[in-house]
Amino acid sequence: MLKTTIKCHLLALVLWFWLPPQPAVAEIQPQLIERPTLVWCLDHFPYFHEYDISDTPTGPSVVLMQELADRAGFKLSFTPRTNLARCLKLMEQGEVDLMSNLRYSDERSQFMYLLPYSNNVAESLFMRKADQRLIDSKTQLRSLTLATLRHYLYNPATMALIAEESRHIAQVDSIEVALEMLLRKRIDGIVAPTISTTEAINAISSYQQRFKIAPLDFSDDTPDNIHLALARNSPNAALKSLLQQHLKAMIDDGTVARLIRNPENRPDVKELKLQQP
Fold first, then answer.
1. Are 230 and 97 contained in the same domain?
2. CA distance 63 to 50
3. Which of 26, 60, 68, 82 has the largest CB neighbor count within 10 A?
């Protein structure tokens, strides 16, 4: 019996020297959970998000999205400059995760979760500064040939007007194309987002003092927010509630209002409105 006990002690002693030391419980580090990467598809939308001299977009929408990523705990990745129609198709296929600055439509809601975060984007009628016509009523638009942005959703009142006057309207792919058409007198006016079009005018020196904003009021009393979109087919679609939660916090603490400013307060917009012949 004594021999058996001695053998057991010797075996235990050998195993103690042979086995590698085990860390104390307090020394065991938990594995870090890797943050998911969400791909944001975006075009060139002057002021809000722009691709100018680099592959990285700039603008208040970019700052807002980066803030949301920090708060919600995900990595934000950008596509190269991609036109609106292509972004919408990629969202439908679940190839990208996010879009921003979108208005709601039933068609879009079929393949995107649309999370509201700001008031609707202001719209204006842009004309050549030398055009002597004073356009301050929507009925006067029937005498004009206009350009609108393809795949861009305007406020409901403007969309109804576009549908009614479609035979007088050319759809173009960008604000820059529309401005060139207006300058060359191929059209009489552009119905477009106020801030983005003003930014596009300011970006080109030859456009200075060539355009104006007509006194026509395109505002609509109907609530019509812009939204952050999350693709329903995205592998990260389960993050919807988390994004919604942090987006609401950014609205409540004033972050969204601070970044997305009212265009009426911009001196360059006021100047274009004053440039009547």
1. yes
2. 12
3. 68
